[in-house]
Every structure is written in C-alpha cells, then in structure tokens.
Q: What sequence folds into this?
C-alpha cells in the first residue's frame, strides 16, 4: 500500500526553487573559493596539493558515510529511518561528482608531481628498501586501477540505491525494497574493502613506510560521524524551508543523535586501539607516525582531538534532551563537522615538521569542495520527493517513537 | 512506577480482593482508559500489553525514570574506580620496577578503565531496571486469571489494585466500566495458593552449584601451599612445548649439534664491526682502561642517560643507592632463598678504585651471579651507566665540603 498521496496532502515534501537557489549560491561560493585557493596556492604547489587532499577526503568521507547509511538501513530493514533516507540517498548519489573531484589529487600525480606521495618518486623508491618492497602495490598504474574500482563501485552502488528508491515512489510495493535489501549485504562487504583500501591509498600511503591495520576503520568512523551530522543538519535546513515539517520529528532526530553519540565513542575506541598497540609495542617503524604528531605544535592538535573529538561530544551528546532538541543537536553536528576536518588535517599534514601549516588555502579548498558538493546535491534534489513515498515501511517511520 | 505508601486496611476476608481487571481489544482503547484512570487520581495500578505501546507512559502519568542518572553515576564510579585501583596498586601499594617504566601511566590503564566503566554501567542498568520494576516476580495474582493469559497474544488489560488509597469496589468498577472494556470487569483475588518463595529443589540445586563453583578456587589455593611429586598438567601443550630451539640447546640438525649458529667465516654482521677496543671492550693494549673512551662525552646529558639506564637495569638488584639492597635482593631474602648472594655494594672501596674499563667489562660480560648485559644495553649506554655510577659512589661517601658553597644551605 502506498502512502504517497496521503503524505503529499499532509505535508510539503518537494523543494523546487529553494533547493535550486541555495544550490546555486553554494556552487558559486564553492567555485569562487576553489578558484581563490588555486590563485593563492599556485606558488606553493606542495602546500596546495595537501590542502586539496584534506578537503577532498573530507567530502569523500561525507559521501561514503551517507552511502553506508543508506546501505545499512536496507540491510537491517530499518523502519525508523525511512523518512530521512531519501536525503541520504540524494547526497550519496553525488558520488560520481566526488570521483570527478578526485582528479584534483590524481591529476598532479599523472603530471609527475611527487609532492604528496613519496612512492611516486622513483629515485627515492630505489634507495629505500622498504619502498622498493612495496612498489608492487604502491605504483601509479595500480593506484589508478584501484581508484577506478573504488569510484566505479561507489558510484554504481549509490546510483542503484537512489534510482531504485525513486522508482519505488512511482511503483510502490515491496519488491524494490526486497531487491535493495538483497544487494545491501554483499555491497557492504565491497564497501568495507574499498573504503579500507581507499583510506590506505589516499592517506596512509602519504607516509609510505608506516602501516596500521586499524587505519581504514579509523577513517570509516569519521565518515559515519560526519554523515550523521550532515544528515541532521540537512533535515533541519529542509524543515526551516517549510518542508517535511510534520514528517520528520524529534524522534528521528533523537535516533540521529544516538548514532552521533555512538560513533563518537567508536571513533575514540578505534583511535585509541590504534594508538595503544603502537605505543606499547614501541617499534620505531610504527611509532614515528605518532612521534610526529606528539612533538612541536602538533601535540596541541592531538590533545585537541582527544578533548574535542571525544570527551566534549561524549558528555555533550549523552542526554536524550540534547538529542531531541534541534538547536542543541545542530550545535553538536556543527562541532563534529569542524573537528572532523581537524582530524583529517591531522592525518594528512604532519611529516616531520613541528609547525602547523594552516593557511587560507586550506580553508578555501575546504569551502570550495564542500560548496560544490552540496551545491550540486541541492540542485539535484529539485523536484524530488524528499521522502521515499513508495516505501512500504513509510507508515512505520512516520509513527516512529522512541520508548 | 508505584507508590510505596500502603495505607489501605486489609479487608477481613479469607480470600482478599487483589484488584479489578478490565480487558481491551486495541492499544488505543488501553491508552484512553489509562488516561481516565490517571485523571481519576489512582496510584496503584498498571496496564498490560503484548508489546510496548507507544504513548502509554504519559497516558499513565509515569514520570521519566531516574535510571539513566543512576547508570551515569555507576559508569563514572566504575571508570574512576578502575583508574584509582590501578594507580593505587601499581604506584602506591606495591611499587615494582619493571624495566624502568613509570609506575603509573594513563595509556596502559585505559583498557581496564573502559571495561570497568562499561561493566558497571551496564550491570547497573540491568539490575536497576529489574529492581525498579520489582523483578523477578515469581508469582502474581493475575497468573490465576484465565482471561489474562491472552495478554501475551492480542489483548490489553488494566488492573487497579485494591491497595490503592482511592480504591472503592463500587466506584472503581464504575470508572472501569465507563472506559468501555471488552466483557465484564473481573475481580482478581489475592493468590493464596502460589507463593513468592523459591521452591526448595531450586534452592538446593543453586546451593550445590555455588559450592561446586568454589572447588576450582580451592584447588588453586591448595596447589599454592602444597608440593606434589607428580608432573604438572599440560593443559595447553603447544604453549608448554614449543617447536623452537632455545639458546645454548642442542640441535641435531647441524653437524656441530649447536642450536645457535656462528657467523659465516670471514664475515661481520651489519653493525657488529667492533674495531675499537677501548670503546667496545674497555681495554687498551690488553689491560683495563682507566679513562672513558673518546666517543663518550662527559656531560650532563650523558649523566642523565646513565641515571636512566642505571634505574632500569641496575636498581632492581643494586638498589637506587648502589648498596646492593635492591628490590630483588629484598624479595629473595623475604623468601629465604638459601642460594641467594647479595648483589655487590657498589659503594665499597674495591669498586670505587676499580678502573672504568673493568667496570665496563663486568657490565658487558657479567660477574659471579650477575648476567652479561652486552646484548641488552647499548655500548654507549653502558659507559653512561659507569659515568653515573662514579657520581653515585662519590655522593654516597661525600662530605659537606664537596657540596658547592651556594647549595649547602639546602642540605641543612
């Protein structure tokens, strides 16, 4: 039974000019910022490449987190999340654009830049036994093949979840839900593998001799955390425009808040597990990565991460009243998105230098890439139903209550 | 939630009335009925449903539970308790030097802290929930109602207890009747046949199990204080007998039957070329050197390095002051180990006048019971230890005149 018509009478679920307008502003802001970043950073290409990598990994983490969110809802046959799933589907469906953005990282590599990845430098690889040993994996050709696999798989998967779900708006019925549930389980395995290797390739291989098996999970924790924050904020923005006002309520925000809380702990758990294994084994080839981050000015960033990425949001998000209140939840969502950027900055930058090279180029790159990403997502959200009206579980989601 | 004040007087009947039961077909009816009973001011009553009914809590006037605060407090207690326990045991009550590591450090103690936080929070959550709901409840008067059995399937019930201060057989029945229940209002009698007492058989079985649970601990305790002629049990044999060759053991695979292999003739391993006798052996022209080799800088940094290494490797036996009264010695004496020889008192004249080269040789190759430390301590660090030892020896037999004039005041 389709509840579509019932909902349409009940609530306003389509955005047209507002989405287009906001999307246009975001695209302009993003485009101008990125152009400024290029203009400012042109003289210092190594700096620009790193700044862009942080911004790119930031947007990628949001898109991946959204894709994971959509997949896990189908995998678990979740009912509560139906009214918030379409927004995630739309954002995740920008994955082909993220693939395009990756050219900002891959382009310089193709042009022969070795600023980011030392393993691209043949001379250094020849001299370093360890790098030579890893050359079978860390070489440009195989890297490009892997990128094709990653972005191809993610784009295909997000597109599939999106188009099938939109088709269900028209057709209704439970066949599409079942079909998506069937692909969600194997896709989750593919997702875990591709995300892990992508995190290794794009960030961990910056320090090509260092290795940590926890690294992919660490990046994943940030992906999910930021995706839930964006999801909550997107819904609040949509509701501020008079859409979904009676569809999404504090019960749904409460659940989003719970996931933000849970993944705040998960991030700390994974981050500490990675640290402690390396700390107590105390092997120089592993510890140097942390050594760089515990020396000079970087030690303040490490301390900031501990406090602001875990301790404060942990206590801040604990109460149900905070999760059920849009304003307080929005505060913590912005907080998490800000500290997630710091986290990625902390992963990408330190390379033995004690100072923190934060500059306007970093901010401009981040604003640019984020602006383009969300501008495009908002443009594409035009005329779409903002909830999957054909989903048979919609009524359950509308009536959802936390006990 | 229930009110603890019991003010009603027992009705002098052999079979007392426990309460009045009303049955409903839908959760909506249950909620409507709950609202009316709430508004009528009843406190000792409850609703029953086959599944959690959304909105029943406000309809019944149930206030949010305080359990989350209790769980929060328990989590905090568990976390701080775990940290305090580890800090107190390892850095206050039983300080034990392990390779010069700090007695207390946060990273090493986080896993226990985390686990105990989670454990106390979740156990408190479970037990608190059970206690606050008065569970487990072994018997209830409603168990005897045939109609009530359908509460596990498709019916919804409200029971107003006779112990409620507002209970009145007629008025309450009227109120329930007004909520349009399904079928007649049922009078539930107190249950005089069943009891809340746990059956004896179960009690005995639990006692036997509890006693049996002590046996492994008792056996462990017994094994600690007794000796046995029998060989030990190998519960995990491949841990006890590992397929490897330990140092100095025989290995029939090789012609010389040594497990330890010599370097190939005429080769030197990387970093093993030791062509500086003074630095690597402490000898100059075959006799023990009286001076430090040129590679060792006599500086505060070297002294500090030596202090650290001495703290790590030497103090367990020789003690912090070099007197030979270290913790290992004290422990051996407390165990009355007959074969134990006290470690050398490094403050004695014979050690003070011993040349640095000989001391270096002693550390590197061992002396009497003391093992060789050549493989454990870097060459540089062994010399640094000797430098520190010299300062230590001096300080242990120092006079006031040795202290710089400016700092003498601090000693008085």
A:
């Amino acid at each position: 039974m389709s509840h579509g018509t019932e909902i349409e009478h009940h609530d306003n679920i389509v955005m047209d000019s507002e989405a287009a307008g906001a999307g246009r502003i975001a695209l302009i802001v993003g485009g101008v910022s990125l152009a400024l970043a290029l203009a400012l950073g042109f003289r210092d290409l190594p700096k620009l490449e790193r700044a862009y990598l942080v911004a790119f990994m930031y947007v990628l983490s949001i898109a991946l987190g959204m894709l994971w969110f959509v997949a896990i809802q189908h995998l678990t046959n979740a009912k509560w999340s139906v009214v918030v799933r379409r927004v995630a589907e739309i954002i995740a469906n920008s994955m082909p654009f993220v693939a395009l953005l990756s050219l900002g990282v891959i382009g310089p590599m193709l042009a022969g830049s070795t600023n980011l990845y030392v393993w691209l430098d043949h001379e250094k690889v020849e001299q370093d036994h360890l790098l030579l040993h890893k050359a079978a994996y860390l070489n440009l050709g195989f890297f490009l093949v892997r990128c094709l696999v990653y972005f191809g798989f993610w784009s295909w998967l997000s597109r599939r979840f999106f188009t099938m779900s939109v088709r269900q708006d028209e057709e209704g019925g439970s066949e599409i839900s079942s079909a998506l549930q069937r692909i969600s389980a194997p896709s989750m395995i593919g997702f875990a593998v591709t995300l892990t290797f992508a995190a290794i390739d794009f960030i961990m291989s910056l320090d090509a001799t260092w290795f940590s098996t926890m690294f992919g999970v660490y990046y994943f924790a940030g992906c999910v955390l930021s995706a839930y924050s964006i999801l909550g904020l997107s819904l609040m923005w949509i509701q501020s425009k008079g859409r979904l006002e009676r569809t999404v309520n504090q019960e749904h925000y409460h659940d989003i808040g719970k996931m933000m809380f849970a993944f705040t702990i998960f991030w700390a758990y994974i981050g500490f597990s990675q640290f402690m294994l390396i700390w107590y084994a105390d092997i120089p080839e592993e510890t140097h990565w942390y050594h760089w981050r515990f020396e000079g000015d970087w030690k303040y960033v490490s301390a900031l991460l501990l406090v602001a990425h875990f301790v404060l949001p942990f206590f801040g998000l604990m109460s149900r009243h905070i999760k059920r209140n849009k304003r307080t939840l929005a505060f913590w969502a912005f907080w998490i998105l800000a500290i997630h950027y710091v986290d990625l900055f902390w992963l990408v930058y330190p390379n033995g230098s004690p100072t923190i090279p934060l500059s306007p180029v970093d901010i401009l790159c981040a604003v640019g890439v984020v602006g383009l990403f969300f501008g495009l997502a908002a443009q594409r959200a035009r005329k779409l139903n903002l909830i999957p009206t054909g989903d048979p579980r919609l009524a359950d989601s509308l009536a959802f209550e936390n006990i | 939630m229930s009110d603890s004040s019991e003010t009603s007087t027992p009705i002098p009947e052999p079979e007392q009335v426990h309460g009045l039961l009303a049955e409903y077909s839908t959760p909506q009816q249950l909620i409507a009925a709950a609202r009316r009973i709430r508004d009528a001011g009843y406190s000792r009553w409850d609703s029953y449903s086959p599944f959690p009914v959304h909105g029943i809590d406000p309809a019944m006037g149930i206030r949010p539970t305080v359990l989350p605060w209790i769980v929060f407090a328990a989590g905090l207690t568990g976390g701080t308790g775990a940290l305090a326990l580890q800090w107190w045991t390892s850095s206050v009550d039983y300080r034990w030097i392990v390779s010069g590591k700090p007695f207390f450090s946060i990273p090493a103690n986080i896993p226990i802290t985390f686990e105990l936080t989670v454990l106390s929070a979740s156990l408190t959550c479970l037990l608190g929930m059970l206690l606050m709901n008065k569970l487990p409840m072994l018997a209830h008067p409603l168990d005897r109602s045939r109609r009530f059995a359908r509460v596990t399937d498709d019916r919804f019930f409200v029971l107003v207890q006779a112990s409620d201060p507002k209970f009145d057989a007629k008025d309450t029945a009227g109120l329930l009747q007004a909520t349009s229940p399904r079928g007649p209002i049922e009078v539930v009698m107190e249950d005089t046949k069943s009891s809340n007492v746990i059956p004896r058989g179960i009690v005995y079985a639990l006692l036997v199990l509890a006693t049996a649970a002590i046996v492994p601990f008792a056996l462990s305790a017994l094994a600690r204080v007794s000796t046995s002629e029998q060989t030990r049990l190998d519960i995990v044999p491949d841990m006890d007998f590992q397929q490897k060759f330990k140092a100095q053991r025989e290995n029939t695979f090789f012609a010389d039957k040594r497990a330890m292999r010599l370097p190939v003739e005429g080769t030197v391993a990387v970093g093993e070329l030791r062509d500086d006798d003074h630095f690597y052996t402490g000898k100059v022209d075959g006799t023990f050197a009286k001076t430090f080799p040129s590679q060792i800088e006599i500086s505060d940094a070297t002294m500090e390095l030596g202090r650290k290494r001495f703290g790590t490797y030497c103090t367990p036996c020789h003690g912090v002051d070099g007197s030979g009264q270290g913790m290992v010695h004290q422990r051996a004496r407390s165990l009355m180990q007959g074969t134990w020889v006290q470690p050398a008192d490094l403050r004695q004249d014979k050690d003070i006048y011993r040349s640095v080269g000989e001391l270096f040789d002693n550390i590197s190759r061992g002396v009497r019971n003391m093992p060789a430390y050549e493989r454990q301590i870097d060459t540089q660090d062994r010399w640094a230890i000797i430098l520190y030892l010299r300062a230590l020896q001096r300080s242990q037999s120092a006079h006031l005149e040795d202290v710089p004039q400016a700092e003498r005041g601090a000693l008085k």
Notes: The two ends of chain A are 27 Å apart (CA to CA). Residues 4-226+237-249+358-398 of chain A form one domain. Chain A touches chain B at residues 269, 272, 275-276, 279-280, 318, 320, 399, 401, 403 (CB under 8 Å). Residues 110 and 140 of chain A are 8 Å apart (CA to CA).
